[in-house]
């Protein structure tokens, strides 16, 4: 008796020192499993072996509801203003020891710090939650819109996307934070979302109880049968700026030496389009410029596009663009971040 | 004569003090009682404390304490007393607790301290030290249990 008591104390001390080092368990033993412990004692009286004695006890493993939602985007999802159907990616894992349904809800942050560090300052338009039906790992046309995950087995997981449209008129660095929450429901049957779960207590070790064992998520508390995680969209817009300058090339009196803007003088208009550093590449940049009144477009010179500019004077480039209805227009090549391209033409003062 | 008398006295005293928490004895000179408790560690007054409760609510990851109480209700000394406890399915020894002195990883064929046992890795064919998860049985060997003597053996486990 003395000996065993001392031994028990030793065990307790060691168990205490290891507090907090418990390894994480996945779903584990299925709910409803009966665990029966049977001990057998062999012994002798005198020198004669006696019939072995046994003793046993049983209990049932209860139902632990636990779910994990994790974003699968290691960095923010970069979007351009007006971009449609952009997905943020999540994984929902059923850590419960039983099959459950999981209701999915997407929400937006309002001004708080988003998952990847930025501060939320706009809302996207969430068009739906999709499950990666074809297991491609990316959101595509093979994926189905869902409101819940049906019959997710213990330890099973699904890739889920929040799909959203991005409004126009946003600036580079603007952030929209979103959250995905998965809430456990009874498995019920295939094809329909089961009923809500609640914790139960019953003094009978052989009854199967329901215990919520989930951790707190970004938008839900611990032990509420739900878990959530965040993700975010960050805008990378083109930051275009336009500068228009003009110079007198020649006049009928002075020629090209110190020409003045007198009737008959040739004026060159230089339009420079610049994209800010750190911006998205601007595609299909079109420049249109009406020729001012009392001036005549110089068709001999034509229009030069994709040239460069120095001190307000355009140079280089190639012939392009067009002139119609008293208006000059032309399309520039793609403007990468920090890039400047020009369109320039000449007109004669009437 | 005087020896027998003192033994009987000891037995009587033992029976009176232990009758309250042990079940009725039967013909065998040995009485066993096994139970399982949920072993929760709680913080109280800045100290950690073990709280044992009945296994009303048990979920994977919970820590359990399996206990076996024994009592020699006979008049003779019991020797070579071996308590053998196969680990139930769904239960593993608690890696954070001290394993019983004798464990088996091969279904109770061979026994030894956990640190002395080796497992052959089926993938590589090489040997590795046994882990608590490999243990299939635990046992305790007592040389003798005197008449009236009572005691308890126990081990910590976790629900897989």
Tally of DSSP β-strands of chain A = 25
Q: Output the number of helix runs of chain A.
A: 1
Elements of chain A, N to C (H/E): HEEEEEEEEEEEEEEEEEEEEEEEEE
Label the structural class of chain A.
mainly beta
Q: What proportion of the residues of chain B is helical, as a percent range?
A: 10-25%
Q: Low-confidence spans of chain A: pLDDT under 50, at least 5 residues?
A: 1-25
| Main sheet specs of chain A | 7 strands, antiparallel
Low-confidence stretches of chain B: 1-26
Q: Specify the CATH architecture of chain B.
A: Sandwich
CATH architecture of the largest domain in chain A: Sandwich
CATH class of chain B: Mainly Beta
CATH topology-level name of chain B: Immunoglobulin-like
CATH class of the largest domain in chain A: Mainly Beta
Shape of chain B: flat
The percent range for strand residues of chain A is over 45%
CATH superfamily of the largest domain in chain A: Immunoglobulins
Distance between the termini of chain B: 55 Å
Straight-line distance between termini of chain A: 119 Å
The number of strands of chain B is 10
Q: Mind sketching the topology for me?
A:
The complex is a heterodimer of chains A (350) and B (160).
Chain A: H1 2-17, E1 34-45, E2 48-49, E3 53-60, E4 63-65, E5 67-71, E6 77-79, E7 86-94, E8 100-108, E9 125-131, E10 144-145, E11 148-152, E12 157-165, E13 175-186, E14 210-212, E15 226-235, E16 240-250, E17 266-275, E18 285-290, E19 295-297, E20 303-310, E21 313-315, E22 318-319, E23 322-324, E24 327-332, E25 340-349
Chain B: H1 2-18, E1 30-44, E2 47-53, E3 63-72, E4 78-86, E5 91-93, E6 102-104, E7 118-120, E8 127-129, E9 137-145, E10 150-159
Antiparallel strand pairs in B: 1-2, 1-3, 3-10, 4-9, 5-10, 6-9, 7-8
